[in-house]
Amino acid sequence: MNTRLKNREIKVCPVVLRKVGEVYELLLFEHPLADVQLVKGTLESTDESFESAALRELEEESGISNVSSSRYLGYWESGFQNQQWHFVSCEIQDELPNQWSFFTQDDGGHEFKFFWHQLKTQLNFKCHKVFSDAIKQVEILCI
After folding, report:
1. What angle do CA 55, 61, 65 make, to 5 degrees?
2. Cβ distance 86 to 72 under 8 Å?
3. For residue 108, what pLDDT band results from cuts at 50, 70 and 90?
4. N or C: which end of the chain has fewer CB within 10 A?
């Protein structure tokens, strides 16, 4: 699969949501060096589709591999480093905890601390503008 499209860097973002009562929560994590983020990564030439890339990134960055279904949601021109993000909804088979840590092998190994953020609420954590904008894009695509 072409990892560049008209000089854009292609990113994939697996979107994991859960519904608690009447509200939706989005899975995020705190990176030890780069504040709060969504799981995302670069589309690789070996990826068969945006969905397969999203499943790979989700497992690499969170350890989650029990995805029951995935569905392409759409893309977004992030305006950051010429990145085009492709969002993929990932339904998880089992209930996930409220918080957990995962040790990733990316970039020499880091501990990512996962948590849930209630959509349509103010961000009460520090994150790069591209991630706060991406969260808003998820709200547009999913709610």
Report:
1. 40
2. yes
3. confident
4. C
